[in-house]
Design goal:
Layout: H1 3-11, E1 21-23, E2 31-33, E3 37-45, E4 48-54, E5 57-62
Antiparallel strand pairs: 1-2, 3-4, 3-5
């Protein structure tokens, strides 16, 4: 997902004062509260789209 796509998706939500959370992933009903975003240099793997590491591609880390 690109930043533009995320922003457009969030702008369509009816409650713009809702708290943003991210699912922990491995445990159901466990969420992380989003505090902000940091621009990072990343690298992705073509064989595993769920994996990201340090690199030179533009990316945004949600923290």
């Amino acid at each position: 997902m690109k930043v533009r796509e995320l922003v457009e998706t969030l702008q369509r939500l009816p409650d713009q004062d809702a708290t943003v959370v991210i699912g922990e992933g491995l445990s159901p009903n466990v969420w992380l509260i989003v505090e902000g975003a940091i621009v990072r240099g990343i690298r992705t793997r073509k064989d595993n789209l769920d994996w990201v590491g340090p690199g030179s591609e533009p990316g945004v880390e949600i923290v």
